[in-house]
Batch of 4 targets.
Target 1
Amino acid sequence: MKSLIIYRSVHKGNTEKIAKVIAEELISDIVSVSELNNFDVSSYDLIGFGSGIYMANFNGFVISVIDKLQGFNGKKVFIFSTSGSPKSFFNSFDKRIKKKIKENNGILVGEFNCQGFDAFGPFKLVGGINKGRPNDLDIENTRKFARKLKEAN
């Protein structure tokens, strides 16, 4: 199985850390959205999109790149994110990216979120939240997620 991870990690490197763990487990190609210059993904069997959560959404660059990918139709896709607060019924920050994947005929096969150190906006005033995250347990949970992806695909 040939896989590709496309991610955006801006403030604290949380998402990049998770992206690298997934890439190691899947033996994936990995590229930051800012470095992506070849938009042909036809040779990949599985594509992952990762982002920190900004204002309750995936990063806009990650979402917009989906429209530009050649050979995306029918691809298996997974999403992953890091956030200051966990995903919940009231905080469902993946709606836009899931909609974009569906619009482009991608097949969502997995999703993962873990908390990350967040010192953005009002959290900066208190020195941030989730210090030390992603931690060792988060990394192990990331590895488990990647292994499940590998086994299922």
Note: The chain has a mean pLDDT of 87.
Target 2
Amino acid sequence: MAQDHDHDHGSGHGPAHQQGSAQDHGHHHGPAQNHGHDHTHMDFSQMLPLLVQEAELFTPAYAEAAEWLREQQPEPGLIVDAGSGPGVISCLLAERFPGARVVAVDAAEPLLAEARARAERLGVADRFSTVEAELSEGVGDLEYPADLLWASRSLHHVGDQRAALAGFVRSLAPGGTLALLEGGLPTRFLPRDTGIGRPGLEARIDAVHDEWFTRMRAELPGSVTETEDWPALLTAVGLRHTATRTFLLDLPAPLSDVARDFVVTVLTRRRDGLAEGLDAEDLATLDRLLDPDDKASVHHRSDVFVLTAMTVYVGVKPE
């Protein structure tokens, strides 16, 4: 379940704020939206450590989504993870659907290599394979049509999202299920008033990030503006929209060291990538929050948490 929460490949691409999570993933490319960037080109291969870090941390929510998908498609023969990134979600799907073959599809071979290595470590390599393909061109060559196609925060990295969805549908077997993770809510790490700087820092960061995301979409090859009505888009490409559900990731304070490291990584990316859009006071606040020698920083604070919501839309291909 790939993965941009800042921009997810989560496993998609993409991290913790959908419009741009580390799974900006799924290319998870997924979850989570939220890392900023000083330009709109994203090299997901360079983001490998962050994509793995986020997808593993967000696994409880992805696992809940996988269990829900079992109700929609109990025994798929072939599962495709479109925009798989390093394969964290692909391997999770292989574990949760032990009778299925899983194909991880991504445009970045280094991420697919990581996915194959992960499948080997987890003992699912005999049912696991990869395809290198740009999602704008569909999911590449499959042995047979997919029964379940999962796309986590990868679609918004394709210029013509409707055309990409149509390509996904062509790869589905009759009665097959498309599960699209897009949208949700921005990830939050801090209380509104942190005691330093002006209250509401994360809301202002989100506003700057949304502007960046709009530019990123506009600059994609073949970019087409679409209203982000995902059920309507599923219907437009010939699917029957059958369900929508939002999954919560709630890691309350005090955080584990692993979760705290993730918060530091994400805030550092936001500080570096969105600097031009933030004012001097907010940049100074971020500098304090990221200074390991400052007791008010996220390295030491007892009130840091991770809270986000990820929405999955399900469509079924007519038989």
Note: Residues 1-40 have pLDDT under 50 and may be disordered.
Target 3
Amino acid sequence: MAQIFLDTAKVEEIREAVSWGVLDGVTTNPTLMMRAGTADLKTNTLEIVDIVQGPVSAEVVSTDVDGMVEEARDILAWSEHVFVKIPSTVEGLKAMKKISAWPHGRINATLIFSANQAYLAARAGASYASVFVGRMDDAGFDGMDVVRQTRAIFDNYGFDCQVLAASIRHPEHVLDALLAGADIITMPFGVLQKMIRSPFTDVGLERFLADWDKVTNSS
């Protein structure tokens, strides 16, 4: 079963999604933290962990291997639920290889735009390979093709690394990711809200309630 993550740092959105009973985890990044109005990465991440009680990804800001490893050591010590997001670059691969050798080196390889990048991240020990579907679509490519290719490669070679469909823009992306076999789909809260909504459901409910009102008023 594919897991549903929220791509946000807003605790009010996360609390609401948890109340639906369908949320498995959360992904964040510095931009989302800024939009949530916080610069305290650790405090905000731990508040999210307390709400979700599941995987929460927090991103490094360093671009060199030594800086990433140092940040990752700190981030991963916050909670057993926290994963560290490492960019899929040469320096990132070096950092992933070092971090994955730790007893609890939980890595979310981020900013993946090709199945080759995903393969290398898995080879380097990543736990998640985050494929940025929407950003590729924006550039005129079919981002979901990369999800499908990554799924096939990981299945071919028995990688434990999970395929995470990221940069989700609309419910159709979610449906395509489910059909492509993504292990995890992370999305904005607005997309999750749209997944459950249908005008046909609204009309059907209104009719049921109207019919029930007639029954109760006639008795």
Note: The chain has a mean pLDDT of 94.
Target 4
Amino acid sequence: MAIDEALDGVEAQLQEEGQRVITAIHGAIRALQERDVELADEVIAFDDEIDQLFLAIAASIQSLLALQTPVARDLRLLLAMLHINLLLERSADSCVTIAKLSKLVSDADPDPALVDVLTDMGERAEEMLRRALDSFSNRDLAGAESLVELDDLIDRANRRFVERLVDVMAEPELREWGLRMVVVARTIERIGDRAVDIGEQTAYLLTAEFREFTDASHPTTS
């Protein structure tokens, strides 16, 4: 059927967008780690390509909703892809934020321990997004739900970052760098949160019920 082919085409575009965002995450973290201004500029410029793909996917979804008559299963898929498309675009914007912040303090001599924590967080965020996309593609509910455990690892790493930051901020020459890195850490954490959100869209697609994997109003304690 024509609508099935169209849905497959949109989903293929969505996966392509996801892979580009994964590339952007990797580049942004490496630019931060290596203080590579040129690579940071490439990450910033690369966002234009992701934005173009985002707009093309959004237009395709809107066209299918307006011109076709999707049944409930197809409608869930379209709605899930609409949400995931936005989540990916926002994650790409987060990579731009990281790249811009790394450029602002590229001349600073960073704290190696904090850089290691941020790198670890970035690698986990990249892994989470890859798993989220694979789970959606494979219609894998268990894989989608497993994202919560990976997100907990990012949260723990962020706590290590905060603990170390207290010592770093006592050194005047590192204060500006440390303040910029606070935003970087939070930005990486949000990428992980969006990967969990993608997992929730996979669950919605498979079960026809939307549920949050975690309840932010009742945080876990450790």
Note: Residues 216-222 have pLDDT under 50 and may be disordered.
